[in-house]
């Protein structure tokens, strides 16, 4: 007699492949579970990638869901994680085609899904800088909110996402070119925002652990631009801690 683990494995395999036999249920009964599994998986993706679905249409999204599930079946009882590998799948599935940009659109939407379960730490105000002597400011290391995701794309995917917050949005001109931006949670709202290249480079450097001085150099900021970006970081509640590097 098959063990419980063996029966569970055969049941899971039969849900994905009609050619696999399962000792637990007859084929007619198994078809019901297979259909429910397919629909539930697709609906989980639809919840996570609503803009991508809107851009490609329901029929093509169903096709993508089927092919994706064949390569990346759910391995968790929590359907939140069903879309974890979707962007990587689209990278390969759409490689070399005119719709390859959809992979980066999926990255924005997956970042939003991750933000939805991320915590938000208490933020610091700009007055926290006054606790450090001016000569030490360049050695400050910024702790940023843990939900912060920074994404650069060769395509105008932020414009696509922002434009498609309404039904029947017009197509976005792909000749707009590359865009950079951030995704993070703030007060139960998930913010998707484009950033200019200098701000993106500076925040990316801070996020990687660079000191304020090194991040300023990496982004080629002058004092005026630095003041503007720092005001943005503190006013938006993105800074959660400050420490002084010993180097």
Question: Would you give an account of this structure?
Answer:
There is one protein chain. This protein has 247 residues and is an alpha+beta fold. The chain is 47% helix and 13% strand. It has ten helices and five strands; from the N terminus they run H-H-H-H-H-H-E-E-H-E-E-H-H-H-E. The strands form two sheets. The protein has a three-stranded antiparallel beta sheet. The protein has a two-stranded antiparallel sheet with strand order 1-5. The radius of gyration is 23 Å and the shape is elongated. The model has no long low-confidence stretch (mean pLDDT 91).
Short synopsis of the structure:
The protein is an alpha+beta fold.
